[in-house]
Amino acid sequence: MIIKEVVQIGNPLLSQKSKKVKGLTSEKTQKVVRNLIDSMHYHGLVGMAASQIGEKFRIFVTEIRKTPYRNPKDIDKLRVYINPKIVWFSKKEVISYEGCGSVAYAKFFALVKRPKKVVIEALNDKGIKFKLNADRLLSRVIQHEYDHLNGIEFTEKITDIKKSMSLEEYKKRIVSKKR
Ligand SMILES: [Zn+2]
């Protein structure tokens, strides 16, 4: 198992556009996928993009695990997205708190407005094409990770900077009220 440090905001790697993956089932691609999954688990994140472990490829992973506070409707299995494309965004938008492993190790949370639902097309780790309709937290995580592939950090999209908060305050004021 290889755990990678999360590339932190300010590092130019995070603002660069990632490249399309060519050798889908190549050793290199598989290694990036494995390292991403291991690193996402280790750092306790719900999603992670390749640029966050210093790899400039259009790959990200998501997994919304069960926690005592998380709404059971948000739980989603491990998914791998290679060369993803969001092909549809809902007109309806929602504002919700987001954090990121690249922002002081996920200790900063702020409100971001995003389309509520998306449809994404991508290849999985076996190189098989899939299409996914995503809503709720998964939709938000997908849009967040997709932005990473285009060099965009969520801090560029904060809707109300005054409502930003630390991890501790976020747990106390937001997470505990969601139960
Ligand atoms: Zn992030």
Would you write up a description of this structure?
With 179 residues, the chain is of the alpha+beta class. The protein has a single domain, classed as Alpha-Beta Complex (Peptide Deformylase), CATH 3.90.45.10. The chain contains three helices and eight strands. The strands form two sheets. It has a five-stranded antiparallel beta sheet. Strands 4-5-8 form a three-stranded antiparallel beta sheet. The longest helix has 16 residues. It starts with 26 loop residues before the first helix and ends in a 6-residue tail after the last helix. The model has no long low-confidence stretch (mean pLDDT 93). Bound molecules: zinc ion. Zinc ion binds next to α2. The site of zinc ion (ZN) has 5 residues, from α2.
Name given to the CATH architecture: Alpha-Beta Complex
Strand arrangement in the largest pleated sheet: 1-2-3-6-7
Gyration radius from CA atoms, angstroms:
15 Å
Number of helices: 3
Q: In the CATH scheme, what's the topology name?
A: Peptide Deformylase
Beta-strand percentage? 25-35%
User: What is the number of independent domains?
Assistant: 1
Give a short account of the largest sheet: 5 strands, antiparallel
Topology, number of strands:
8
Shape: globular
**Share of helix among residues?**
10-25%
Order of helices and strands: HEEEEEEEHEH
CATH class: Alpha Beta
- The N- to C-terminal Cα distance equals 34 Å
Low-confidence stretches: none
Mean pLDDT: 93
Bound compounds, each kind once, are: zinc ion
Given the helix and strand composition, which structural class is it? alpha+beta
CATH superfamily: Peptide deformylase
